[in-house]
Amino acid sequence: MTATPAPAMIELQGVAKRYGDVLALQRTDLSIAKGEFVTLLGPSGSGKTTLLNLIAGMIKPSAGRIVIDGRDATTLPTNQRGLGMVFQNYALMPHMSVFENIAFPLQVRRLPKAEIKLKVQQALDLIQLGHVADRRPRELSGGQQQRISLARCIVYNPALILMDEPLGALDKKLREQMQLEIKRLHAELGITMLYVTHDQDEALTMSDRIVLMNGGRIEQQGTPDALYFKPETVFSADFIGSSNLLPGTIEIDAAGGYGLNTALGHFPAPAPATPMKAGDPAVLLVRPENMALDAAGGATRIAGRLEDSILLGGVVRHFLRCADGTILIVQELNQPGRTGARRGDEIHATWLPAHARLLPPAPAG
Ligand code: ADP
Ligand code: MG
Questions:
Q1: Is 172 helix (H, G, I), strand (E, B) or coil?
Q2: d(Cα 311, Cα 289) in Å, to the nearest integer?
Q3: Which numbered atom of ligand 1 lies nearest the CA of 47?
Q4: Which of 20, 129, 226, 332 could join 222 via S-S bond, C-beta 3.0 to 4.6 A?
């Protein structure tokens, strides 16, 4: 039995964008299902905003086709694409009250007055800000203003909402609160969301699927778990979570078991996801939380000197300097009564071979 794939809300077919010499987006295929929460994640300049603006119709593609909800939207103007947008700068109209700001898109659509009133009230209730309807935007906090711009977006019931770093201007606590609020709205309303951020934690918290961008192309995409536990490249491993990365060359033993020869020793590892031959350059990835300090019986270990240990609340992060200068990060739970190793101690980092991952070497440059 084959599962029926969810119908696509967005379909990008070979879409590219060039600005003179700059290829802001390389030829990209991407499909986003109805009701999905997809996050475009990547460093500054990786093409996230370009991709979002192409879908929004704010810019025109240099090549390719954009289909939204089954309709070819490649040349449709923004206001005919049936989508809502939320930006970092709330873009509220300062001379209008909160009520008038949220009502505005409905007035443009010429809805009857009574219906507008009802819908605005419902949108305000949804973001739990019914009591500020008469205020002006400048009388509200940044978090409240961003919730108002969300309400203005959901009030006309778009099937698709695009958000470009909407929480970038908020402080950490408020940002985390808003992340959960946007997630709740997504779950309650079933709207398809395409969300842009450069913040990996935000992407991991919110998304059904993360599309990781690098240099104007998709580096890797998958569930937050897949990106975290199964990065396919050094870039992915480095961008999401922290990583210990040891370069070396592949060795394959008589039984077909893989391992990597590095400056710090030979380390066995599960067979790589991409084909590799003996002698190929590769990189061994071990996440800091999969390493432990000096656990007994670990055959897979590296000696070093403890340079520093920093407390991050529930976890402790140790920095171990190895013979060749490599710094390994070892992360352990911070338990009450923890008798930790001390700065300057000679100690080992150890891990289970099953927790290591062989990656192709990072491209030069
Ligand atoms: P991100 O949103 O991931 O930070 P952008 O999509 O804004 O990245 O930009 C991707 C690349 O395209 C960058 O190199 C940027 O300098 C370039 N770029 C974006 N917009 C323009 C433009 N209007 N003119 C020229 N280059 C642009
Ligand atoms: Mg951007």
A1: helix
A2: 14
A3: 6
A4: 226
Which residue CA neighbors atom 10 of ligand 1 most closely? Answer: 47
> Does the structure show a pLDDT above 70 at 296?
no
- For ligand 2, the distance from its centroid to the CA atom of residue 94, given in whole angstroms, is 25
Q: β-strand 192-197 against 160-164: which pairing, if any? A: parallel
Residue nearest atom 13 of ligand 1, based on CA coordinates: 45
Cross-strand pairs, 249: 261, 281
pTM summary value: 0.91
Residue of minimum CA distance from atom 24 in ligand 1 = 19
Name all residues whose Cβ lies below 6 A of ligand 1. 19, 22, 24, 42, 44-50
Considering only CA atoms, which residue is closest to atom 26 of ligand 1? 19
Kindly indicate the confidence band of residue 310, based on its pLDDT and cuts at 50, 70 and 90.
very high
SS3 content of the chain, % helix, strand, coil (to 5): 25, 35, 40
Angular region, 206: left φ>0, alpha ψ -120 to 50, beta rest: alpha
Evaluate whether 231 touches 285 at the Cβ level (below 8 Å): yes
* Ligand 1 atom nearest to 40, measured from its CA: 3
Higher-confidence position of 112 and 297: 112
Q: Please tell me the number of the ligand nearest to residue 40's CA.
A: 1
Which bound ligand lies closest to the C-alpha atom of 166? 2
Cα distance between the two ends of the chain: 46
Residue of minimum CA distance from atom 22 in ligand 1: 19
pLDDT tens-digit map of 95-104: 999 999 999 9
Ligand nearest to the backbone CA of 53: 1
Distance, CA of 87 to CA of 322 (rounded, Å): 46
Nearest to 198 by CA among 59, 46, 30: 46
Question: Cα of 50 to ligand 1 centre, how many Å?
Answer: 6
| pLDDT band at residue 2 using 50, 70 and 90 as cut-offs | low
| Residue matched to tokens 């398809």 | 192
Evaluate if residue 272 carries a pLDDT over 90. yes
- Tell me how far CA of residue 214 lies from CA of 86, 91, 217, 233, 289, in angstroms: 23, 29, 6, 11, 26
In degrees, rounded to 5, the angle at the alpha carbon of residue 88 between the alpha carbons of residues 83 and 92 is 75
- pLDDT score, position 364: 77
Which residue type sits at 214? N
